[in-house]
């Protein structure tokens, strides 16, 4: 194990120890639950509690993640093939990133049912990040390869499919990694709006009943879930774009 890893482990242990002391003594107030109590609460709630809420959140987050990223990639491809719409698409992306989620959640909740609201919130959360990452990747495609496709009679769409999307794939997958926690956050916020099931709905109930331990437990589950899916997308990135990993290593060296 390298010195950097030793330092990371030591730092984590120090933070956990300080957290345990602060939660046990109550020096920072009653809202800080110690890690031991949080783990005990997770075991007490068990699968019966989380099986009721976790699948709902996962389904909404997955739907929003899929459609939001698909729309972002499609809009980026549209900008490359029809440059006249670039200003409109970028304005839409900036608007989706600037509007506070908590402000549009009540409006969406009044128009749609619970899971649909959460899925839309997740889609809005991921749109701008993937749009910018995809556009950046598409614009950095090798012009020599694009000229070669054009020399053989290919048009804009063939250049996009054969050259630009391939070059943009590392950027797209990097954007998808960043979009994972954003999609989960959007889903949880959407579930605040009167939904009966889902981690966000359970979090609201725990807060209203002043159940500090369960509130921290749900937050921990959300964090672990986001981290796990992030690592999954990272593994797909390494498998799908091995040349990008090699280039990054050479650049660091």
Model regions low in confidence, pLDDT < 50 over at least 5 residues: 246-253
What about the largest sheet?
A: none
Order of helices and strands: HHHHHHHHHH
Query: CATH superfamily name?
Result: MetI-like
**Tally of alpha and pi helices:** 10
Fold-level CATH name: MetI-like fold
Structural class, judged by helices and strands?
mainly alpha
Distance between the termini: 20 Å
Strand percent estimate: under 5%
- Give the CATH architecture: Orthogonal Bundle
Strand segment count: 0
Your description of this structure?
This protein has helices spanning 3-25, 35-81, 86-98, 101-111, 114-139, 143-151, 156-191, 199-208, 212-240, 242-252. With 253 residues, it is mainly alpha-helical. The chain has a single domain, classed as MetI-like fold (Orthogonal Bundle), CATH 1.10.3720.10. Helix 2 crosses helix 5 (114-139), helix 2 (35-81) crosses helix 8 and helix 5 packs antiparallel against helix 7 (156-191). The chain starts with a helix and ends with a helix. Mean pLDDT is 85; it is low at 246-253.
Which helices and strands appear, and what pairs or packs with what?
Elements: H1 3-25, H2 35-81, H3 86-98, H4 101-111, H5 114-139, H6 143-151, H7 156-191, H8 199-208, H9 212-240, H10 242-252
């Amino acid at each position: 194990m390298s010195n950097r890893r030793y330092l990371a482990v030591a730092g984590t242990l120090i933070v956990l120890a300080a957290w345990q002391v602060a939660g046990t003594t109550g020096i920072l107030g009653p809202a800080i639950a110690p890690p031991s109590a949080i783990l005990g609460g997770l075991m007490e709630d068990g699968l019966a509690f989380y099986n009721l809420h976790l699948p709902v959140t996962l389904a909404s987050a997955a739907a929003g993640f899929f459609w939001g990223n698909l729309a972002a990639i499609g809009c980026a491809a549209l900008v490359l093939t029809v440059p006249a719409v670039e200003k409109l698409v970028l304005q839409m992306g900036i608007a989706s990133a600037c509007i506070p989620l908590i402000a549009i959640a009540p409006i969406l909740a009044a128009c749609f049912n619970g899971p649909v609201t959460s899925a839309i919130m997740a889609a809005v959360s991921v749109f701008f990040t993937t749009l910018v990452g995809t556009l950046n990747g598409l614009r950095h495609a090798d012009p020599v390869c694009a000229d070669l496709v054009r020399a053989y009679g290919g048009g804009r769409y063939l250049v996009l499919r054969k050259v630009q999307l391939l070059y943009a794939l590392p950027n797209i997958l990097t954007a998808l990694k960043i979009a994972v926690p954003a999609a989960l956050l959007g889903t949880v916020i959407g579930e605040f709006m009167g939904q009966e099931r889902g981690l966000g709905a359970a979090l609201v109930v725990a807060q209203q009943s002043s159940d500090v331990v369960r509130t921290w437990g749900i937050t921990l589950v959300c964090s672990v879930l986001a981290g796990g899916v992030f690592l999954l997308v990272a593994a797909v990135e390494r498998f799908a774009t091995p040349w990008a990993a090699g280039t990054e290593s050479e650049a660091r060296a």
